[in-house]
Design a protein that fits this description.
- This is Putative 8-amino-7-oxononanoate synthase.
- It is a single chain.
- The protein is an alpha/beta fold and 492 residues long.
- The chain has 3 domains: 83 residues, Winged helix-like DNA-binding domain superfamily/Winged helix DNA-binding domain (Arc Repressor Mutant, subunit A); 244 residues, Type I PLP-dependent aspartate aminotransferase-like (Major domain) (Aspartate Aminotransferase, domain 2); 108 residues, Alpha-Beta Complex (Aspartate Aminotransferase, domain 1).
- It has an 8-stranded mixed sheet with strand order 4-11-10-9-8-5-6-7, with helices on both faces. It has a 4-stranded antiparallel sheet with strand order 12-13-15-14, covered by helices on one side.
- Helix 3 crosses helix 4, helix 7 crosses helix 14 and helix 8 crosses helix 14.
- The radius of gyration is 31 Å and the shape is elongated.
- Bound molecules: pyridoxal-5'-phosphate.
Length: 492
């Protein structure tokens, strides 16, 4: 566009009746014309006086626009000889000569990004019959929590509104160390406790600090898809190891090639529910000591054990400082709280605390302070005891319905602890299709085969969460599910 035509072009586009000020319109139009090469580099612009007269706007407006665009690099001004369009085209030599033109592929993900999204297990449904692993958040003692919160909020200490110190809020680490020593036989001092946003973040931090991309990590097969994805996204080589009745069961060939790390759920195998035997625990600890590998103990829900007391943690048996214990408040209080923790060996306490603060710039100290009071004043223990009774009743109600409708046809497993059980199905049955059809009928479950590394070798079943279904709704919702199950089992 020739300079003489510019005034006409601008005059046609300037809307003096609209709400956008002339200053902003002129700036936008000139920017667009320069980016679209309508005004090429080196082109001289009309003087501010001339342009203001031709457009019928204040000269100051044009001066301001020219100055602003000069600051942004679109124009060269103030040389005395006029205002010119600056040369801002990218230097092709500097950019090199790409083999392909990637323009237009703005949605392209990295390979690990593609893998993560393609294999994601996360569900849109987080509440209702029979979503596995969700606490009954309607029973959360909100009045107590809000009283404790108000106490801190009345006159908040500046440090509570700031970033978290490395490792988290000190009184919470003290209260938690006390609780874990007593309730879970964890051997720890408060300094070894690192407060995180949950098990996902705890595992993420542990693999970043203890593994390098490409390192081999053992996971149980089947296992929780969430932490599997966290580790996969860190570029680790995951090796699924089958489980038997005693927990993770590496073969002699597996044992000959020790991994850098393994992730296990000894108190309540996820999702099948068995407890790791003492012999297997001792074998793993000795193996980790001799072969210098790390064990992550995911103790996500073992507070809720129905027939007997919670079991001793693997960490409590570890004399060689190989176990990193991870836990969460999501299953006990409510998932959206997003507070969890790691217990690390003493030598790792300082690096973990520093790395956490460095990577994630933690905060939420007010919530941590409320939680510290909640534990120290006995509300936490009372809530666990109360909810163990509530969930125990719901578990029995669900087991009763399953057995009443299906008897021996649908054996139940993994019901001794936690917030879900597994309804076993015959091997020929497509549990994914069944879960899909159940969802269409309004009931959320998860197919057991989805937790295995190879669906074709998986045991079939449905994970049914009973914790977040009210007692009086269990029979009704199970009846809906049972009709879908009967169709698949060809019992009708
Ligand atoms: C075995 C297991 N580990 C960890 C988690 C997630 O823990 P968080 O919510 O603290 O990240 C879950 C959630 O369902 C789980 O089942």
């Amino acid at each position: 566009m020739r300079t003489s035509l510019l005034s006409d072009w601008l005059a046609q586009r300037l809307d003096k009746t609209g709400t956008e000020p002339a200053y902003r319109q002129l700036q936008r139009l000139l920017r667009e014309a320069i980016l679209a090469h309508e005004l090429p580099a080196g082109r001289k612009l009309p003087s501010s006086r001339m342009l203001a007269t031709e457009l019928g706007i204040a000269r100051n407006t044009v001066i301001q626009v020219y100055e602003q665009l000069a600051v942004e690099g679109y124009l060269l001004a103030g040389t005395g000889s006029g205002t010119f369009v600056a040369d801002s085209t990218p230097d092709q030599q500097m950019l090199g000569n790409p083999a392909t033109d990637a323009s237009g592929e703005t949605g392209r993900l990295s390979q690990r990004g593609q893998r993560l999204v393609a294999s994601a297990g996360v569900s849109r449904r987080q509440w209702g019959a029979f979503v596995p692993g969700v606490a009954d958040v309607t029973r959360f003692p909100a009045a107590v929590w809000s009283r404790l919160q108000a106490r801190h909020m009345r006159n908040p200490q500046p440090e509570l509104l700031s970033y978290a110190p490395p490792g988290g809020y000190a009184p919470l680490r003290v209260a938690l160390a006390d609780y874990l020593r007593n309730a879970r036989s964890v051997r720890c001092e408060p300094e070894q406790i690192i407060i995180t946003t949950g098990i996902h973040q705890s595992v993420d931090l542990a693999v970043r600090l203890l593994c390098d991309p490409g390192d081999e990590v053992w996971t149980e097969d089947p296992c929780y898809w969430g932490v599997r994805s966290v580790m996969q996204a860190s570029g680790l080589a995951l090796k699924p190891i089958p489980v038997d009745q005693e927990g993770i069961c590496p073969s002699s060939e597996d044992l000959a090639q020790p991994p850098r790390m393994m992730l296990v759920t000894p108190s309540h195998q996820y999702p099948l529910g068995m407890v790791m035997s003492l012999a297997r625990r001792r074998m793993l600890l000795e193996f980790a000591r001799q072969r210098d590998c790390w064990i992550i103990e995911d103790d996500y829900d073992s507070e809720f054990r129905y027939a007997n007391r919670p079991l001793m943690s693997l960490q409590g048996m570890d004399d060689a400082n190989r176990v990193i214990y991870v836990g969460s408040f999501g299953k006990i209080l409510y998932p959206g709280l997003r507070i969890g923790y790691l217990v690390v060996p003493p030598a790792l306490a300082e690096p973990f605390a520093v790395a956490l603060a460095e990577l994630y710039r933690e905060g939420q100290l007010l919530q941590q302070a409320v939680l510290a009071d909640f534990i120290a004043e006995g509300h936490f223990g009372a809530h666990i005891r109360r909810m163990r009774n509530v969930y125990g009743t719901r578990r029995e109600a669900l087991m009763h319905e399953i057995s009443r409708r299906f008897g021996e046809d649908v054996p139940v497993r993994g019901d001794e602890a936690g917030l879900h059980l597994v309804a076993s199905l015959p091997d020929h049955l497509d549990d994914r299709q069944l879960a899909h059809d159940a969802l269409a009928a309004g009931i959320a479950t998860r197919p057991l085969s989805g937790y295995y590394s190879h669906a074709d070798q998986a045991t079939r079943g449905l994970l049914l969460g009973y914790a977040c279904v009210q007692d009086e709704d269990i029979a009704r919702h199970f009846s809906t599910l049972a009709r879908v199950m009967e169709d698949h089992l060809q019992l009708r």
